[in-house]
Write a structure and sequence with these properties.
It is built from 5 helices and 4 strands. It is α+β, with helices and mostly antiparallel strands. About 15% of the residues are buried. It holds the Pfam family FliL.
Length: about 180
Amino acid sequence: MLGKLLPLLLGLIGLAGGGAAGYFLRPAPPPAEHPTDPAAAEAAAGDHGAATEAHGVPAAADHGAEGDVTSEFVKLNNQFIVPLVTESRISGMVILSLSLEVKVGETEAVYRAEPKLRDAFLQVLFDHANTGGFQGLFTDSANMSRLRRALTETARSILGPGVLAVLVSDIVRQDS
């Protein structure tokens, strides 16, 4: 009797667990086309900005008191791959994704200068790796601040003061 009941019981538990997971992990409902609540209208506008950034269009960042946009985020197209060398052999690699926070209207300048930016950023990343910046606690706050500061200075040397910051959006270290 137990041999016939156990598979049925396990199937029901699996079905209930899958249904619960689907319920709790479902995507958020789309925003209303014309919300009447001003707070809902702002939320819908914020969701639109995130969606356009995901499709390669920079999203607006800071808003002043009057609601004017003062900066944009520009995600660089490809990841940066930095080999980690120990005793003349590659001991691992670090993969990073970078974005730039720039003043409004500077987005095109970033894309025009992207090859030069990538070259300069790779040099900064290689120097950081060669000085041990990606060893041990490589995501330590002081270590990451030093890396961001060096990348921001490099970006400003190429693009000028329109660059507000360089952001590390993803970072992964793989040891071999």
